[in-house]
């Protein structure tokens, strides 16, 4: 029984923070993103994905600690009672679900040096975690979230260039003019091919063809002489 009791103190489970602490941080960050504007509990529950009944209890604990205040009436709701740079993550966690540290080894286990060594390592880990949460403000969470939010290429201006909306109408796509083929050169022939005097009798000139008639094998030249 003593061993199981000791194990329950050192076991952190899959998450170091309780569900209540996580819900409280969601609510505080949501109010910080709309600082100075009270948020209705219904709207906050939808935005933070926290069950409405659970969120009400968390907000009541935050209001009792002075981190949050409520405004009744139309247009009212919950809002932060301090500037975002004056509220730390550790304050929010300790308000609703304080971190549990191991103060000392359970009686009867001092003889197990391995367990005492584990206790010391866990105590150092808890101390480092508390120091990190104490130095982390809600304002820094908002700033880190803005830095981690990706921007599309259209939203990212070039270095040193201030982007302004364009008022120039879209230009039609460029279509090149058709290119005509160059004229073919006129062929030239030697004089011997075009001169009538250089031809032998009966030799057809260019452009003439032979044809056979029904008058035997005699060939006649067709075409102009």
UniProtKB/TrEMBL annotation:
Molecular-function GO terms, alphabetical: DNA-binding transcription factor activity
Region annotation (Disordered) ranges: 179-225
Any single GO CC term annotated in Swiss-Prot or TrEMBL for this entry: cytosol
Listed InterPro entries: TR_Rrf2-type_CS, Tscrpt_reg_Rrf2, WH-like_DNA-bd_sf, WH_DNA-bd_sf
Pfam families (UniProt xref): Rrf2
Pro residues biased stretches: 179-188
Name by which UniProt lists this protein: Transcriptional repressor NsrR
């Amino acid at each position: 029984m003593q061993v199981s009791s000791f194990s329950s103190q050192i076991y952190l489970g899959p998450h170091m923070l309780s569900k209540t602490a996580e819900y409280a941080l969601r609510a505080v960050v949501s109010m910080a993103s709309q600082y100075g504007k009270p948020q209705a509990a219904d709207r906050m529950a939808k935005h933070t994905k926290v069950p409405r009944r659970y969120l009400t209890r968390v907000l009541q604990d935050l209001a009792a600690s002075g981190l949050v205040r409520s405004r009744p009436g139309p247009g009212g709701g919950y809002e932060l009672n301090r500037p975002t740079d004056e509220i730390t993550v550790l304050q929010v966690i300790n308000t609703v679900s304080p971190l549990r540290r191991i103060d000392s080894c359970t009686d009867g286990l001092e003889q197990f040096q391995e367990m005492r060594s584990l206790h010391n390592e866990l105590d150092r880990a808890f101390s480092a975690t508390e120091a990190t949460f104490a130095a982390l403000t809600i304002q820094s969470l908002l700033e880190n979230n803005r830095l981690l939010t990706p921007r599309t290429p259209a939203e990212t201006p070039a270095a040193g260039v201030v982007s302004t909306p364009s008022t120039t109408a879209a230009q039609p796509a460029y279509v090149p003019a058709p290119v005509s083929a160059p004229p073919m050169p006129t062929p030239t022939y030697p004089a011997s091919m075009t001169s009538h005097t250089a031809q032998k009798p009966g030799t057809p000139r260019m452009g003439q063809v032979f044809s056979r008639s029904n008058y035997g094998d005699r060939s006649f030249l067709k075409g102009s002489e």
